[in-house]
Amino acid sequence: MSACAKPYSAASDENKEPILAVIQPLFSQARRLLEIGSGTGQHAIYFSAAMPHLIWQASELPDQLPGLHAWLDEATRPNLPSPLALDVLGTWPGDSFDAVFSANTAHIMTVEAVAAMVRGVGAVLAPGGYFALYGPFNESGRYTSDSNRRFDAWLKSQDPRMGLRDLGDLQALADRHGLDFVRSEPMPVNNLTLIWCRRGCRVAD
Fold it and tell me: Which InterPro entries does this UniProt record tie to the protein (predicted)?
C-alpha cells in the first residue's frame, strides 16, 4: 500500500498527548501491552515511541488490517510488532499482557461486543496489570454534555446497535471478570479515560 493510501484519523492526532499524559505513568512498569481496535495505528506509533520499554501489540478486525499495516510497516519501530487480527467476539490471543489499552471503541461496538471485550481483557490481563479505556461515556444513565448527546444520536442513526456506554454498566461487567475499577480521568472534549486493574493489584497513584 502506498503512503498516499494510508487512512488518517484527525481525532488520533488531537487526543494523543492528553491520553499519553494519563497512560505513561500507568504503564511505566508494563512490558507488553495489547491495544484493542488500533484503527490507523497512529496511537500505536506515537505511544510506542514515547514508551520504548513497552512492546505495543496493536490489533484490529481482519478487514481493517491493511490500513493499520500501512502505518506500522512504515514506522519500523522495534517495540511495535506486526499487528494481530482480533475480533473481540472471536478467538483471543493465548498470551498474557501486562497492560491493555483501547480508544474510541466501546461506542462503535455492539453491547455484545463490549461485553466480549471486557471478558477478553479479564482473561488476558496479567496480575497487577492495568486496562485503560478512552472515549465518551454516559454516567448514571445520563449524558455528560450536549455534544455527547448529539454524538450518541448520530451513532444510532448510523447503526442502532452503536451508542455511548454507561460507566455503571462497564463497572459491573468488569467486576464480573476480575477487574477492579481504579478511577475515571477527565479528558478534553467531554471524554474520559476509564482505568481498571487486575483484581488484587497495587493501585498506582
Answer: DUF938 (IPR010342), SAM-dependent_MTases_sf (IPR029063)
